[in-house]
Amino acid sequence: MAGLDDVFGDIFASVDAVVLFSPSGSYYERFMAVEDLDVVVVGTENAVGAETFVELPLEFEDISERIRFGLEGALEQGVIEDGDELACATSVFGDGIDTVSRVRADAESHTGIYDIFAKSRADPEVVKAVLELAIELGQKGQKGKPVGALFIVGDAGKVMNKSRPLSYNPFEKSHVHVGDPIVNVMLKEFSRLDGAFIISDAGKIVSAYRYLEPSAEGVDIPKGLGARHMAGGAITRDTNAIAIVLSESDGLVRAFKGGELILEVDPEAY
């Protein structure tokens, strides 16, 4: 692969590393043969035995999400540095790599998207489904009006023991899972009412209308956030759950893990 600058011009010129998303073995070997070129492989598994590897919890279909998550993971693991110029090669139209983008690593634009997946015991598909539901609620609201919501994902048994019902649980005898379009419509309707949704590691909706009762002592949340965020942060300190919170006041979606804020997303920019 000598002469990359001549073939690809500015895309590969003076890059600090090439980031390959789920490459074939032969494609990886071709890049490894280039002298003085750092190669990072990103994927759901290290099928090529790469020396430098960042694991994706799931294969994001959206190309921008795939690259964003991969680069945040690479920054988190220290395999790339803030300001690095990167050539990201991935597949868009087929099974093989067919698209290359030049991206600058930016630690200041860290969203926490890597943390919410990498630090969760829940199935990554479940976390993704709940996050997307919260973002959609933030974009559209409830009948055009802003709405707040609190989703507790994972470690459902312990979360149930640290909460109490505010009303009848409509999911008590059901076996429905988040991500189902019909179920998501139900969750949007129920979001108008108080309390948290409790969701298992596998995505089963265990309960709605739960009042969380963990101690808020020692939980540090940003100023201006209210009881919903405090409860979400506190329950994640006392359990292995993740809290995904939609704020009614500012419309942002935030996630907490281990009592700390790890993600903040503006639904309108998603």
The CATH superfamily title of the largest domain: DNA integrity scanning protein, DisA, N-terminal domain
Let me know the largest β-sheet. Answer: 7 strands, mixed
Gyration radius, to the nearest Å?
21 Å
Using the 3D structure, state the CATH architecture of the largest domain: 3-Layer(aba) Sandwich
Organism: Natrinema zhouii
Family: Belongs to the adenylate cyclase family. DacZ subfamily.
EC number: 2.7.7.85
Function: Diadenylate cyclase that catalyzes the condensation of 2 ATP molecules into cyclic di-AMP (c-di-AMP). c-di-AMP is a second messenger for intracellular signal transduction involved in the control of important regulatory processes such as osmoregulation.
Describe this structure in words.
By secondary structure, the protein is α/β, with parallel strands linked by helices. It has helices spanning 4-8, 25-32, 63-77, 113-118, 124-140, 156-161, 181-190, 227-238, and strands at residues 17-21, 39-43, 53-55, 85-90, 99-104, 149-153, 163-165, 196-199, 205-212, 242-246, 253-257, 260-265. It has a 7-stranded mixed β-sheet with strand order 7-9-8-6-10-11-12, with helices on both faces. The two termini are 37 Å apart.
